[in-house]
Amino acid sequence: MFDHISYINNNTAEVKLKEGVPLQGNIMNMHVMFEDEDKKILGEVEDITKDSVKVNFLGEIVNGKFVGGVLRKPKLTATIRVITPDEVKMIVGVPAPGKFLIGYSPLYDDQPIYVDINDLFSNHLAIFGNTGSGKSCGVARILQNVFENNLLQPYRANFFIFDAYGEYHNAFSNLNQVNPNYFFKFYTTNERQTDGELLRIPLWLLDVDDWALLLRATNHSQIPIIERMLKLTRIFSEDDEQALKYKNHLIAKAIMTILYTNQTATSKRNDIFTILETCSTPQFNLEAPVQGIGYTRKFRECFIIDSQGSFVESVLVTKYISDFIDEELDKYETTKLSYFTLEDVEKALNFTLISEGLLNNDQTYSDAVTLKVKLHAIVISENAKFLSYPKFITMNEYIASLVAVGNHKAQIINFNMEDIDDWFAKVITKIYTKMLFDFTKNLPKRASLPFHVFLEEAHRYVQNDSDKDLIGYNIFERVAKEGRKYGLIFNLISQRPVEISETVISQCTNFIIFKMNHPRDLDYIKKMLPNISAEIVEKQKSLQPGTCVAFGKAFRVPMIIRMEMPNPEPSSSNCDVIDTWSVH
């Protein structure tokens, strides 16, 4: 069938076909071997004309094993043939410990394709494809194959799936039937789903960066406000005598600041009463008793204005207020974590607003008020229940609770995010990613407990945000660059790669691409991935649903893979219009 090499150019060769000899079946995308006296080079048929074929070099057979890349091209006198069944196995792999079935080769009579688990799951993975191309089914099938693999039981696996549409519950809810030691855990934002736990995050585990994202801070001047808010929240949450002293100290300083301004007595009184409406204690409220010599006044009575426009009890109230000011309290700090609620945070922010520095700076006060409005919007919103945890818990205890099912450990943890807005879902996903990253970084032995984060509809979350300008980093980009060495691995699933952060995509080592048609996405993939060829891009354009092009570290050569339908399937199928329109 093959005659001789007519020319070699860069990484391709043109091979003349023997005249009068018919082709042995459809050889498009089939692999061929170039042999001369000292080497064997594997190639793939990329183009066919009437009398010749174009072959792309893929790698070399060295000591009976395939090695990707070609340093030495074949000689023009090399012989060319279709690869043998044994050589096909070098490409598609064979069952072995540490490998699992990913799918089948439609080019080689549905030969099973096995990949190395370490090569696939120790590196970031991107799964792209149009809606309806088979992404969700492909992800479900891959994970089902992992747990159905008899050569490895992944009891200590941790797959966290952030599920934009609640698709994967159906695919993994029966995981325990595969093996009684496997468990699936389901967190949901939909209170109507009674078979899962409501997603809840302990507020005291969030740091300044988390709050900046949650409150959608827009400039750097708001960061110190958030820092002070958290400091006050932690102090007040202790609910002891020291916390009460601190509150009284802050109120007293704020009132004294107002008393020494040039405002009219009426304006001063209005400002002081406004403070007490939002920040009050038993010692500072409108009905608090103020003891004079032989008589008592209520706090509000001390601000009655006389005919000269002054407070009738200015001396008494000034002495009362100043007794609560203790400058040493400004140095007080607490590192203790304790339980608090959103309402406690809101109270702390109110105290932050009355602090002396904010009262004297219009711009900073305006920034603080903006944060106050956003915080109150969360407090009164449906999202508040996701930021309400019933009891105090440490970070390590919380991470452990995420994977706990009674006295057992869950291997797949599914977060259903379909009932919250995109902005809130993005923040929640960032918070969890940061928690997992910090946890893995602090493990005594590096990468001893790998976490795999699957982000469905990744283009909603992994974007070129302003996080780097605001807090100095984007957690997704940080994990993409550093997470692998700590065992935190991303698996991005998206139909719009053009909207995903370039930094994150550039750190992906493996790619599984289902059919994609949008020219912007195709052009983006070609520009972002130096190891993707025009041939791979062309291949995926004609793929059937459930069939993908896979390439990267886990695959010896770029491969077309047909995946079996998962069983059970994720809830990602199209609406059956005929059935719903019919009369039953």
User: What's the gyration radius in Å?
Assistant: 33 Å
End-to-end span in angstroms? Answer: 60 Å
Main sheet makeup: 10 strands, mixed
* Biggest β-sheet: strands ordered side by side in the sheet: 13-12-18-11-19-20-10-21-22-23
Number of DSSP-assigned strands: 23
Q: What portion of residues belong to β-strands? A: 15-25%
What is the overall number of helices?
A: 21
Strand and helix map with partners:
Blueprint: E1 2-9, E2 12-17, E3 31-36, E4 39-48, E5 52-62, E6 65-68, E7 79-82, H1 85-92, E8 99-105, E9 111-116, H2 117-121, E10 125-128, H3 135-147, E11 159-163, H4 169-172, H5 175-178, E12 184-188, E13 197-198, H6 208-214, H7 222-237, H8 241-259, H9 265-278, E14 289-291, E15 296-298, H10 314-322, H11 342-353, H12 356-359, H13 362-379, H14 395-402, E16 404-405, E17 408-409, E18 412-416, H15 422-441, E19 451-456, H16 467-470, H17 475-486, E20 488-494, H18 502-506, E21 510-513, H19 519-528, H20 534-541, E22 547-552, E23 559-562, H21 577-581
Parallel strand pairs: 10-20, 10-21, 11-18, 11-19, 12-13, 12-18, 19-20
Antiparallel strand pairs: 1-2, 2-5, 3-4, 3-7, 4-5, 5-6, 8-9, 14-15, 16-17, 21-22, 22-23
Question: What this model shows, in words?
Answer:
With 584 residues, the chain is of the alpha/beta class. A ten-stranded mixed β-sheet has the order 13-12-18-11-19-20-10-21-22-23, sandwiched between helices. Strands 1, 2, 3, 4, 5, 6 and 7 form a seven-stranded antiparallel β-sheet that branches. It is 35% helix and 21% strand. The longest helix is centred in the C-terminal third of the chain and has 20 residues, at 422-441. The chain has 21 helices and 23 strands. The model has no long low-confidence stretch (mean pLDDT 91).
